[in-house]
């Protein structure tokens, strides 16, 4: 599998990768256990602090790992990882070690104990900052505390889930920068 | 501009269009005024009720229209509407009538007073169901009460914002349905 040479990336700029709406892999750690889940229901909520909201229910084995550790990593898989993305979403961490099963590499993060998935394009280390919406909405509020992104390619080819087993694959990027007011960029 | 022959669409299935993360146009109505804003920070939060969460700040002229009326319509523009999407995001409803300025057609909705944008691929009529997260997170909780979607094309070509004036244009859709457990589709 392809790997990337990643650098520290400004956390307030991660909307570049999350706002287009890719499916992501969420890695977590609690006690001696790592897990990974596939997640499609997330949104950017603020630039600084770099806030993300995401929907994860207690039906996911990762739910308790993230709730108890108050940490996770959001990893951006590229389209070539589609079999891993689907596989990870169709088995449970209660039964398998997903890093082992899918031959993915757990790399140590800097600010959280949850591991980075080395084979993913980018990794965003997150702290859970608010669990008060879990009961009503299964909604975690996260803050990205460190981001790892490669210098190249600037934009990854990502998977965007439509439900029913269908993914949209991201297409080309086009700039309309000259049509924006500077304060709106 | 292209228009679509739309039909009633099951509200619990709108994730097909929103989960991939397109930029959307939000139309609103309050007293004798209609407005439109461009929005990129939103997520599906539940199938049934068909729940959406979205980030809209009071810096947007639409904020008060949506807050007071407790309604809006989420419209999905296709990539050919990129100039309208950028233009709408770079002027204010406090100064211009955006329907008039961008030659868009306000069609009556069925269950809300906010208008549908006829030229958009799909229209989701929404009620605001929870405003308790506005103060802390500028986050509206919406319920889709009626959805209008054309029979064809099945998947629209959409715009996905990366910030900095750059849009990703959605690419092809591929099915991995056979690799899913039925309960996970």
From TrEMBL, chains A, B:
InterPro entries: Flavin_Rdtase-like_dom (IPR002563), Flavoredoxin (IPR052174), Split_barrel_FMN-bd (IPR012349). Residues 16-168 form the Flavin reductase like domain. Pfam families: Flavin_Reduct. Gene3D superfamilies: Electron Transport, Fmn-binding Protein, Chain A (2.30.110.10). This is Flavin reductase family protein. Keywords: Flavoprotein, Oxidoreductase. GO terms for molecular function: oxidoreductase activity. The lineage of its organism: Bacteria, Pseudomonadati, Bacteroidota, Cytophagia, Cytophagales. It comes from Ohtaekwangia kribbensis. Its cofactor is FMN. Its EC number is 1.5.1.-.
């Amino acid at each position: 599998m392809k790997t990337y040479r990643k650098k520290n990336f400004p956390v307030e700029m991660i909307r570049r990768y999350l706002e287009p709406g890719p499916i992501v892999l969420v890695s977590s750690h609690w006690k001696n256990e790592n897990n990974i889940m596939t997640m499609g229901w997330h949104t950017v909520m603020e630039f600084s602090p770099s806030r993300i909201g995401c929907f994860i229910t207690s039906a996911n084995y990762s739910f308790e790992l993230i709730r108890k550790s108050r940490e996770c990593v959001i990893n951006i898989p590229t389209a070539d990882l589609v079999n891993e993305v689907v596989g990870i979403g169709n088995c449970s961490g209660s039964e398998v070690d997903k890093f082992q099963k899918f031959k993915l590499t757990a790399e140590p993060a800097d600010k959280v104990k949850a591991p980075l998935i080395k084979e993913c394009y980018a990794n965003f280390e997150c702290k859970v900052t608010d669990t008060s919406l879990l009961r009503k909405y299964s909604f975690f509020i996260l803050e990205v505390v460190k981001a790892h992104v490669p210098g190249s390619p600037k934009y990854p080819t990502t998977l965007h889930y439509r439900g029913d087993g269908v993914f949209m694959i991201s297409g080309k990027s086009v700039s309309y920068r000259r049509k924006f007011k500077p304060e709106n960029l």
